[in-house]
Amino acid sequence: MKEIFVDTPEALAALCDSLRGCEALALDTEFLREKTYYTQLCLIQIASDELIACVDPLALENIDPLLDIFYDPAVTLVMHSARQDLEIFFDLRGELPGPVFDTQIAATLLGYGDQIGYANLVREFTGVALEKGHTRTDWSRRPLGEGQLRYAADDVRYLLDIYREQRRRLREKGREDWVQADFDALVDTATYAPPVENLWKRVRGNQQLRGRQLAIAQALAEWREAQAQRVNRPRRWVLKDEVIIDIARRVPKDLATLGQIRGLEGRTLERHGEKLLSLVEQACRLPREAWPQRPRVTRLTPQQDAVVDLMMAIVRTRGAEHDVSTTLLGNRKALEALVAGAEDSPLLQGWRALLVGRELQALLAGERRLRVADGRVVIESC
Known about the structure:
This protein is an alpha/beta fold and about 375 residues long. Helix content is about 50%, strand content about 10%. The chain contains 17 helices and 8 strands.
């Protein structure tokens, strides 16, 4: 298979000409994010049936012609563990490409367990053992060596073959619709752009806060997000989670008190101290009805906990029968919500409802029972 390195507009144009009309393309990226808010895209790897290309976005002022191909709805993008890669494209264009086929998700519905790594997937499907020598590469440094480019190319070299074999097996099992529902969720923009008013939920330790404290955390989290985007630095470099929590708990009213917050850097206090105090004051003036609200948590009774145990036995039994990961099918948290009366549970939607959700509802309605026979759980109608 032809392999090329693309770092000029002319080479990019030629590549795009060769990719147009392809029904499926294998796609992967190399990136850095340790020192920036937005992911730094360092390399794009693409494979068709005829070629493998490593595209250098750091050398190209404009990669829009290539992005146009990725965003063509007639092209299926085949990726492995696509979430982080898709986030990059969302940041670039404010929308997601598609359709997407994620070989990691497909593998879970073919009996390969939770979140199988790409190297293990390649070995399972092709028998090839991939090199691991460049897993810690700084992909922003140039020039890239032959070994690095070969390693990067391997990330897409086998994807199309795996994709076609997975589709064949899914078709045989009647699970193409199952996996499509999960792919559709993967390209839901809400996954990559949560409402700013909910950013406080991502602050570690927010469970310690109540009432007005949550309003303060909400204001600080929104300000931090905007500031991190503006200067393109990680959130934690702007304001650490633990600092947000301590400010919300202590409610400082002056710079001296604010300066006593452990972990708040001196330069942050100097540059943004007055702004932080203003945000605290504004949050404190909010009426109670404007405070962030946590979802009401219903504590299960011991009897309900016992019911969840029975439901878990059904999930594990059906998961084993159909060679589907128990975690993917339904974890304990989802079962607890179902027992508590949740009506929007993933267990009641799509293939999960067919495989186990309706049976769980029947158990809750007293229409199913469990018994042990020959050391195995048997699920039967009442």
